[in-house]
Design brief:
Elements: E1 2-7, H1 14-29, E2 34-39, H2 58-69, E3 72-78, H3 86-94, E4 104-111, H4 118-130, E5 134-135, E6 140-143, H5 156-176
Parallel strand pairs: 1-2, 1-3, 3-4, 4-5, 4-6
Helix pairs in contact: 1-5
């Protein structure tokens, strides 16, 4: 059982920190789950131009393959201009629908205002519906104030939500795929 965590940012570190924290929580409580971080910052991905996903090469092909290899996914994005990152949108455009179809998906979002959590409800969840994914009921939104000066998460409520999301992802994956 493989969980891929996606950090959909090419600048900054906060989204990656939160995605990593959920992956660590999963690994701590469920060592049988293989985890992999897909940090979009580490790849030079082409813009989607409508080609069949199998026609892409190099880093773009690697990223598509990593997403397709997941049994379930954790998707993280910073919120820019009240929307997901362009990097994440491009990834959604690149991968075939089957990469997310019938897979459990959880969401992480980071942002500078407290209202940006609505992006998860109004954009990310509908996209997951289009892909026919099973969406974890909880998600984690982290505001800049939840980090200390060393970019560490210290807010107990956020840490509790991270733990809950990690549990839900594994619970849903285990139950839905045990049939």
């Amino acid at each position: 059982m493989k969980l891929v965590g996606i950090s959909g940012a090419i600048i900054g570190t906060k989204t990656k920190i939160v995605v990593d924290k959920v992956l660590e929580e999963v690994k701590r409580n469920h060592p049988e789950v293989e985890t992999e971080l897909l940090d979009m910052k580490d790849y030079n991905v082409q813009f989607c131009d409508g080609r069949d996903p199998s026609a892409y090469t190099d880093d773009t092909r690697k990223v598509i393959d990593i997403v397709e290899s997941a049994d379930f996914l954790l998707i993280g994005t910073p919120i820019y201009q009240a929307s997901m990152s362009g990097v994440l949108k491009n990834l959604f455009d690149l991968v075939p629908i089957t990469a997310f179809q019938q897979k459990v998906v959880g969401f992480i979002a980071t942002g500078g205002t407290y209202q940006h959590y609505l992006v998860v409800e109004n954009q990310l969840k509908p996209i997951a519906g289009f892909f026919r994914s099973f969406v974890a009921p909880s998600y984690v939104y982290v505001h800049d104030d939840h980090f200390n000066d060393l970019k560490e998460l210290r807010d107990p409520d956020v840490l509790e939500r991270i733990e809950k999301l990690a549990h839900e992802l594994v619970f849903m994956q285990t139950r839905l795929k045990s049939e």
